[in-house]
Amino acid sequence: MKYIVILGDGMADEPLAALGGKTPLDYARTPVMDELAGKGELGLAKTVPATMKPGSDVANLSVLGYDPTKNYSGRSPLEALSVRVNMEEGDVIFRCNIVTVTEDEPYSEKTIVDHSAGEISTEDADILMDAIREAFNSDEIRFYTGTSYREITVWKNGRVPDMAQPHDHLGEKIGSYLPEEPLFRSMMEKSFEILNNHPLNLQRAAEGKNKANSLWFWGAGTKPSLQSFKEKTGLDGAMISAVDLLKGIAVGSGMRVIDVEGATGGLHTNYEGKARAGVKALLEEGADFVYIHVEAPDEMGHQGSIENKIQAIEQLDKNVVAVVKAAMDASGEDYRMLITPDHPTPIRCRTHTGAPVPYILYDNRLDCKGKACYNEEQAAQTGNYVEYGYMLMNKLTEK
Fold first, then answer.
1. Is 383 in the same domain as 313?
2. 224, 77 Cβ separation under 8 angstroms
3. In this structure, are 279 and 169 located in the same domain?
């Protein structure tokens, strides 16, 4: 038996007037997921405990079978694992976004325009991070380049402050959300002076791209400790994702990380390449379990783009779910597949919420021959409800 999770990050949403009261998931053309919803189990799962912030870190830990109330030590340490940052006891690790802020006002009066600086490439980000490292690296503070706009900062013998997430405050003045910790507030202010007129940013502006002109710290945490996924489930697992958070969770839990050329975490990622890499891992490379993570719906939700979120969902159906299903069916291997978001990222608020998410649990050995559409409303109508999201893994693996 092979086990598969296909995770459409932030895919769930709320009804939108612009779509005639439908959600993007309901409006999108998803014939394969609709078919599987009719043949399998459709329901809702609560992946984010009520006591925790609705982040991809918490929600993906849940889907992978880890109780986040017991296993979560912060988002950034998980991302740091992905880029092989050496973490010691006492270190505090931060996500450090390179963001776009307005230019003319005093720093605290600036507005945050883009939490991803136009989904800056990792290559461009590394050039800018070189300037940041030259200015700020010390025995106390170290900066590391991650993927795209998602960088890492380590504060030796630091503390864990509460910091605002940049994607929660797009279009707002930043003064109310600046860190109370003087060191980090100062570095944010100085980063604008370093980055705004950096030659690369002047070139980006000339090309009509958003400048990556400020740092933004958030997501602090300490060195994580996760039980081995194989010890927990008995399965050899592999992770396919473009983002450091998911790769870091995989590293921390002893899963194999599979990199796919052209996987960007954006709308134009290599959807089919991810699907084929997952099938290859299962059928040719000895994996029992693969987790195929697609970031695009979440990013489009943060951008507030209805059209692009719909496109991302349709690409997921056509070039991930359909490809995996066809290849597994042709192989003759029995398999069980879970399709789910980690959390909603509604267009309305352009950030995550903790509402339950619609899941499909499909087993190729069973055929209920039902009729269903994969969307939030029909999932709720089934009455199937998983109160603790980390139990989804037990449902998938029949434990």
1. yes
2. yes
3. no
Residue 109 sits in the same domain as residue 160: yes
| Domain match, 129 and 256 both | no
What 3-state DSSP class applies to 323?
A: helix
Are residue 69 and residue 194 in the same domain, yes or no? Answer: no
Question: How remote is the C-alpha of 297 from its chain's centroid?
Answer: 9
Centre a 10 Å sphere on the Cβ of residue 198 and count the other Cβ atoms it contains.
18
Hey, what amino acid is at 245? Answer: L
Integer CA distances (angstroms), 209 to 100, 111, 281, 295, 297, in order: 10, 17, 37, 21, 22
294: β partners: 8
Return the CATH number at 19: 3.40.720.10
Tell me whether residue 79 is in a domain.
no
DSSP symbols for 144-166:
EEEETTEEEEEETT--------G
Nearest to 343 by CA among 228, 238, 245: 245
Give the pair of three-digit tokens for residue 200: 């690369």
Q: Residue 82: inside a domain, yes or no?
A: no
Q: Do 293 and 252 reside in the same domain of the chain? A: yes
Residue 117, helix vs strand vs coil: coil
- For each successive 10 residues of the chain (399 residues), what is the average pLDDT? 98 98 98 96 97 94 97 87 86 96 97 95 97 97 94 94 92 96 97 98 97 96 90 97 93 95 94 98 98 97 96 98 98 98 97 97 86 93 96 95
At 1, is the secondary structure helix, strand, or coil? Answer: coil
